Amino acid sequence: MDKISAKNRISELREQINYHNRKYYVEDSPEISDYDYDLLLKELENIEKQYPELITPDSPTQRVGAEPLKNFEPFTHPFRMFSLGNAMNEGEFTDFYNRVLRETGKTPVGDTESLFAGDNKIEFLCEHKFDGLALELIYENGFLTYASTRGDGEKGELITANVKTIRSIPIKLTDTAPDWLAVYGEALMFKRDFLALNEEREVEGLPAFANPRNAAAGSLRQLDPRLTARRKLRFLAYSFKLRNEDELSLKTQSARLDFLESLGFPVSPNRQVLSSIDQIREYHHQWENGRENLPYEIDGIVIKVDNLDIQEELGTDAKTPKWAVAWKFKPARATTILCEVEYSVGRQGTITPTAVFDTVLLSGARISRATLHNFDEINRLGIMKGDTVIVERSGEVIPKIVGYVKEKRPADAVPITPPKECPVCGNKAEKIEGEVAYRCVNPECPALKREELIHFVSREAFDIEGLGEEIIARFLELGIIKDFADIFALKHKRDEILALERFGEKSADNLLASIEKSRKVEYHRFINAIGIKFVGAQTARILASRFIQLDKLINATSEELVAIDGIGEVVAKSIETYFSNEKNLKLINRLLENGVEIIYPETIDLSKSPVAGMKIVFTGKAEGFTRDEFKELVHKLGATASDSISSKTDILVAGENAGSKLDKAKSLGVKIMTPDEFLKLIGG
Q1: Which residue in 197, 209, 588, 620 could disulfide with 658, CB within 3.0 to 4.6 Å?
Q2: Could you check whether 446-518 and 522-599 share the same CATH topology?
Q3: What does the pLDDT average to over 420-438?
Q4: Catalytic residue among 23, 49, 121, 129
């Protein structure tokens, strides 16, 4: 094939491939098989390999050509990316609707058919709220130049190479496109592609993704774009920005979506412009009941004032546009048959019942298990084996049983009774007075040992990378370790580790290096790690800030502990009991003898702390520190970091997306500060 023939064939192939990309990824109506599509793409690749000078940036072959990245660079958005406010129920949506009327001076003139007449008419664009990852795409001279995640709204991560692998996103726009265009939309994964991906991961022994949004986000954050390209991600656009908004004479949000569609972007196929509140309610009802029939996940509808002039009049607040709201759906539900109840043993010996039922599809995920928590919960629900139970996916992540269908209870339904013995060691299971749980009280129970060690190496404790559940179970079974102090003596057992199946020199040395790296541990992580009953990460931080050396905590009395805000009598007694046990003290001593070094927090003169003794709550998001870092800082300053607002709260530090806590603080007259104001107060 000569160069002229090659050039002509390349043009034909690109046109065909782009056409079939659109039919598959935008219109969801493929005309050829995947095999035939791959043949077209392969032919194009071969011709371009023969004539590399004919390769252009918009060629379909360039969607998968980038080399792996070392990391993602930060990217400052040219315009702030706002997040939508949520209406969690009909009342909150009605409040939004009435506020728009009030602030724009519009007055209803009818009931359900038409609320507005003449110049008073106001219309809303209603579309699906896609459950994906928000993206910004910047086109310069018609070419996709930058693509980034939303991040904190001001800065995101640059993921251009990965986004170019999404075939529903045009790499080159038509000649009618503006010279500069920022397009906003959602990257997502269709349900069928999500299920296929999880089936592949199951075959490969990899953990399944929790939901399509989780899968889409994980796919876009791959450092190797070639891995992203293997996932069938989609994109749906919902807005755009121009440097000069007068460049296009579009007056409505719906017209802007039509314009995006004309440029080749997929947009919500079920959008409608509605004016009456009853029409919007019906639209919400229609899709709350019909979402299971959609190819993608939605968790609500988005309602936007359609007129752009009215949008500008309403404006935005610190974090959300005042002319739009996301009206969320109730959690997805399904019915299924409860087949069995299994029991697991936690690190404190708690025996937890888990329901096993016929698999159901909820929010794009196959669900076959849900925790029942304890027998008080089972009694409250009134469920029995064999019942048709109602499964709900709360927050579209955590499945739970919320009830059963009484009319469908079979005659042979079996009551769910508490276990008489530990399902792991066979020791008698006991219900401890004052607790709802049944426990295995055998301190040598293999399940307790395993869970204790899993907790010990977890991220909020010693954070030992590479020492996962499977390895811990093997080490315990073979007697390589018996308790968590043995972990830091594993360097003396390298030969035993190398003798194990699937352990080569590199994997063994990586594990030992990870353990060495974890020898130095922050004081609060150490307290959390050693497994004191009722002491989690937050309580450990409180203890670390009050007892500045380990020996002071070991010798603390119940009276001293109860005097601390946030430590009740039950927790205080548990702490005292733990350190009164000679076996526990010997275990801690062995940890220290094996080279563990506790990093104590820097001491601060609390007499100079402007917030000492105060109760402080943080809500929302802040640039520069996480919620855990904020709590640690507050504790160092002699104050109490709380998660709930009350009349006893001294300060609410409100970042972006503050939500209901901000409203409650205002109603109670609590002092409210921004993160910057708080840092300035403490001299940060």
Answers
A1: 620
A2: yes
A3: 85
A4: 129
